[in-house]
Amino acid sequence: MEQPRFRLGTKITFFTILIIISSIVFTSTFFFKWTVENVKDKIKVNNMNSALNIGGAPFFGDLLEMGDPEMLIQSYTYKQLEIVENIDMIVVANMDGIRFAHPNIDRLGLQFVGGDEKRVIETGESYISEAVGTLGRSIKAFAPIKNSDGKQVGFIMVGTLVEGVIASQNKALISILAYSIGGLILGIIGSLILTHNIKKSLLGLEPYQISRLYTEKESMLEAIQEGIISIDNKKEITMINDSAREILGIYDKNPVGKKIYEMFPDNGLEEVLESGKPELEKEEEMNRINIVTNKVPVIYKGNVIGAIATFRDKTEVTRLAEEITGYNEIVQALRANSHEFLNKLHIILGLIQTQELECAKDFILGIKGHQEQIEISVFRKIKDPVISGLILGKFSRAKELGVNFELKDTSFLNLRNDKNINSALITILGNIIENALEAASNVEKIKKKVILSIYEEEDSIKIKVMDNGVGISDTDMERIFERGFSTSNKHSGIGLALVKEKIDSLSGEIKIKSKKNMGTIIAITIPKEVGI
To answer: Can you state the angle between helices 327-353 and 314-325, rounded to 10 degrees?
Structure first.
């Protein structure tokens, strides 16, 4: 699985910061626009309220109507400029537009400039205007001034320079930027903490590593022949593989998510979950199937968070063990010998019952001589007693099948002390001889034969088995070493697969020549330097 260019922590931090920056930019832009409009609105409201309050004073209209000889209007407006915030100018003029109050005293008595005062003079309305005056561009609030009789005698203009508005807006912008930077810093710190916690919860693994582990786990579960069941600390089944379903016969059910005791009452996993102690190589029964099981707790930070059981069908384990160790081959040899001697005992018993004592004596001596001859021949050539016993058993097996079995005179095999190697030879010899005997017994020939040859060279051991049996077709020849494939319904298809595995483990070589209905020759070479 390809490793990504950026690690998970880098991605989380980058995208978190990107989201935070985007959010801050969007929010800041919105609040800045809102603040700008809000500052203007506040100034407009403040200016209008000031204009109405100042211009509505009881004496103001009468003083303006009299021409304000003592300049009380100018004095009063100066004091209001000092009191009221965010106001840069207060101008009072009569109906002819002549100023009676102005921030610049030199401009008293002069005509009002701007042209936006005509509306208040002509209609007597109160309104907001933004225009350029003698002090610069400003936001102005106009209101009529009336005398004590209610007659309009002039107007008042309360204004704020746009420069001041911009300054207020810039101040608001700086505050927004300061909060935004603070939010960004907190967001970065938060993203780093979040990244650390996520990585910690993922055991420091990157997503591609988790994906790879998951894929590997699924592949392993498919490859493992043992059944596997896991439960969590709530005793619910979290995983069960196909082998477990097959062994326990639950093809049509999905136990995942169900309580373990509902599916398998006598499971033993609950005890492991509670005790936290493993149970290894234990034989028990689950779903009426005898199994050999291993159960271990799943521990995280000192706490038991689940349990896992692996198991195999005991019958299958025993069968495979017998196949692998060559146990079946020895048992078959002993059984064949036992069967042959039992038949001979029946003959002797019959001769005795019919009072043919001399015949019985001659028969016994003949058997004894023939058996001794075979045993001496085998034991002289094959020094390993177990392998000798196996070959002697195949002589008896050959008689059962009506096949002439022969160990070539040139055969010779020394005694070796390596039990693993001896076990491999038993598996190899037992399977290929048995296959040859059965192949020879299944043809319609007068003389059915199997010839075994074992001899040592300086650097290797040669094994050759020849039969004149049914042979192997070209199609079957391509599959004879596949586990589970068999040309006979009597076998599981494990024998030759095991033979090939044993030979490969010894760095050996196997060659097979066969013709349909003519016979088969199997030649095996095993190098001595691998330890034999």
So the answer is: 80
